[in-house]
């Protein structure tokens, strides 16, 4: 598979944070021997653009790279009252017309709205801009509660850290949860991000802790997810009393044993849906839910979509 081309547009008075997020997540880094994306930072002018913190940046490309990009990202915007240039609007419209994904992070949603790309679509932006955005763009359906929204290939996010969630969602749509988890773990992202698009937001469970006994137990639990695991049996396995296990497990992971098991079983379900041909009934047995009905209920309650819908959305791509 040829790495998707990601064009990130820098602009005068850009936000270093918003620019750095997609640059970090979509960098040319090779993960497990595989180049995931081809990143190109662009700007309208060949002269350096400046941030508001004494930083300047000379982009390697002009707007012409948007012609071949698979993903075009506007990482924030310096002033909601200032429309983008006709050249940038034309480049965004052209990229969208040929099927590229167009992304507006935080106030970057304004740029997409000024370009007319959000007319009749749902969108997200920073909560502080809600009243201003709806006044300027009444033809856009703003979802003020969403961390990010993907409406027919136009992707927009809420403010600041939601840009991370949004970019990880895009990675997941190409490569599935396993690779996305590796990137998220390296970035040390929050364990759970509540929001209107919660079904697509990662809930990493602790992989290891500072407690060696709990680490050994976590390994045991992962290897025996399909078993009925009582707290008394686990306490015996860990050579602790039930009370000590309960206290130590929560101190080490921030979760109860039951919460950790539930999250790990759901996480393993995601992986199997994406990477195997097992049916829901078989997966339910493999991960310890027992029945397909129990799995479907927990999966739908947690992620807002059915296991079948998840598989359709995030089925692993073969390379």
Structural account:
This protein has twelve helices and twelve strands. 44% of the residues lie in helices and 13% in strands. Mean pLDDT is 88; it is low at 194-204. The chain has two domains: 5-200, 3-Layer(aba) Sandwich (Rossmann fold); 212-314, Homeodomain-like (Arc Repressor Mutant, subunit A). Helix 1 (16-25) crosses helix 5 (162-187) and helix 9 packs across helix 12. The chain has helices at residues 16-25, 86-97, 108-114, 130-136, 162-187, 212-223, 231-237, 242-253, 257-275, 280-287, 292-303, 307-314, and strands spanning 5-9, 30-31, 34-35, 38-42, 49-50, 56-57, 71-75, 101-105, 122-123, 141-142, 148-151, 154-157. The protein is elongated. The strands form four sheets. The chain has a six-stranded mixed sheet with strand order 4-1-7-8-12-11, with helices on both faces. By secondary structure, the protein is α/β, with parallel strands linked by helices. The termini are close together.
* CATH classification, class level of the largest domain: Alpha Beta
Radius of gyration (Å): 22 Å
| Helix fraction bin | 40-55%
CATH-assigned fold name of the largest domain: Rossmann fold
Number of domains: 2
Strand content: 5-15%
Q: Output mean pLDDT.
A: 88
Note the topology.
Blueprint lengths: L4 E5 L6 H10 L4 E2 L2 E2 L2 E5 L6 E2 L5 E2 L13 E5 L10 H12 L3 E5 L2 H7 L7 E2 L6 H7 L4 E2 L5 E4 L2 E4 L4 H26 L24 H12 L7 H7 L4 H12 L3 H19 L4 H8 L4 H12 L3 H8 L5
Parallel strand pairs: 1-4, 1-7, 7-8, 8-12, 9-10
Antiparallel strand pairs: 2-3, 5-6, 11-12
């Amino acid at each position: 598979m040829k790495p998707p081309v990601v064009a990130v547009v820098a602009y005068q008075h850009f936000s270093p944070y918003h620019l750095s997020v997609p640059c970090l997540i979509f960098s040319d880094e090779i993960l497990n021997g595989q180049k995931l994306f081809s990143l190109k930072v662009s700007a309208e002018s060949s002269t350096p653009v400046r941030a508001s913190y004494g930083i300047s940046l000379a982009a390697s490309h002009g707007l012409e790279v948007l012609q071949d990009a698979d993903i075009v990202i506007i990482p924030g915007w310096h002033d909601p009252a200032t429309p983008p240039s006709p050249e940038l609007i034309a480049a965004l419209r052209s990229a969208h017309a040929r099927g590229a994904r167009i992304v507006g992070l935080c106030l970057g949603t304004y740029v997409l709205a000024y370009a007319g790309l959000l007319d009749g679509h749902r969108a997200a932006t920073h909560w502080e801009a809600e009243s201003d955005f709806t006044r300027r763009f009444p033809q856009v359906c703003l979802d003020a509660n969403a961390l990010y929204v993907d409406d027919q290939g136009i992707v927009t996010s809420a403010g600041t850290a939601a840009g991370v969630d949004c970019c990880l969602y895009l990675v997941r749509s190409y490569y599935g949860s396993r690779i996305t988890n590796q990137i998220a773990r390296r970035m040390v992202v929050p364990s759970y991000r509540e929001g209107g698009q919660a079904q697509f937001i990662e809930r990493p469970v602790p992989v290891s802790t500072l407690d060696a006994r709990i680490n050994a137990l976590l390994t045991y639990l992962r290897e025996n997810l399909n078993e009925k695991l009582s707290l008394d049996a686990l306490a015996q396995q860990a050579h602790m009393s039930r009370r000590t296990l309960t206290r130590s497990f929560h101190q080490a992971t921030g979760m109860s044993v039951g919460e950790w098991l539930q999250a790990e079983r759901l996480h393993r379900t995601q992986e199997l849906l994406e990477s195997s041909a097992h049916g829901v009934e078989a997966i339910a047995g493999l991960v310890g839910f027992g029945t397909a009905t129990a799995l479907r209920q927990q999966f739908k309650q947690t992620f807002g979509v059915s296991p079948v819908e998840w598989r359709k959305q995030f089925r692993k791509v073969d390379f």
